[in-house]
Design brief:
By secondary structure, the protein is of the alpha/beta class. It contains 11 helices and 8 strands. The chain has one domain: TIM Barrel.
């Protein structure tokens, strides 16, 4: 089991000092799919980072629509070919498909057509990912951030429909709790859960900082399902990082052990 923080690789040294195992980067900052190859300079920085970067989120920018009347599958394929190729170059194995702004269904747009557009995008992207040893994971987002794929259960309908080994599922406790999703959905999805995000529901702060979150029921399902992948904190910046970040990690590990 490895524990990481969603942050810039520029913070990797501080994250390492605090005891964490890796950094989960932002696709738009690190892989920069809209930037030409000759202008992309982040590979060199990734190679000398203090920690590995096995995962990245924020896959598709809001300006490049996956859903709606302006969605352009050819442009999306070109973008994803660049992003996934660069992910392989810097050692990223997991790309998180949240991208609420890109996949949000416009008002009045046919939802069945929207679902088909998402499936077409994912199928094409998963085929590209397979060539580079990368896995895409669907991230359910709460309805305040996006109006489609709002639960693990809904994400799993896409995972099963697409049925591709390079397209799996993610669970994020923040979205799970905001949506009041039954834990039975997570239990049913366990064979496909390949990435985990953590944050307290209250304020999207790091685990334990709100004093109101109990991760043990979620962790028990993960443990019973033999999950042994990455677990990342994704949320608001940890205050007084050098002091607090080790305590957050200690809290997560203690809750894991108690689950």
């Amino acid at each position: 089991m490895k524990f990481g923080i969603c942050t810039s690789l520029n913070n990797a040294a501080a994250v390492k000092t605090a005891g964490w195992d890796y950094v989960e980067e932002n696709v738009q900052s690190l892989l920069q799919g809209a930037v030409a190859d000759e202008q992309w300079q982040e590979a060199a920085a990734a190679k000398v980072a203090a920690l590995p970067i096995p995962a990245a989120n924020s896959l598709v920018p809001a300006s490049l629509k996956i859903v709606g009347p302006t969605a352009d599958l050819a442009a999306l394929k070109k973008y994803m070919t660049t992003v996934i190729g660069r992910a392989q170059r810097v050692g990223i194995k997991t790309l998180v498909f949240g991208s609420g702004g890109a996949r949000n269904v416009p008002d009045g747009f046919d939802r069945e057509k929207a679902s088909k557009q998402i499936e077409d995008f994912v199928r094409a992207s998963a085929d590209i990912a397979a060539k580079h040893g990368v896995t895409l994971v669907a991230e359910p987002l709460n309805r305040g951030e996006c109006n489609i794929i709002n639960s693990v259960g809904e994400a799993m309908r896409y995972v099963k429909a697409i049925n591709h080994p390079n397209f799996q599922c993610l669970v994020d406790t923040y979205h799970l709790w905001l949506e009041d999703e039954p834990l039975e959905n997570l239990k049913a999805a366990m064979p496909w859960i390949k990435h985990v995000h953590l944050a307290d529901k209250e304020g999207r702060v790091a685990p334990g900082l709100s004093g109101k979150a109990d991760y043990r029921p979620v962790f028990k399902i993960l443990k019973d399902g033999k999950y042994d992948g990455l677990i990342s904190f994704e949320g608001n910046a940890i205050p007084d990082f050098a002091v607090t970040a080790p305590r957050v990690l200690e809290f997560i590990k203690r809750q894991w052990n108690e689950a």
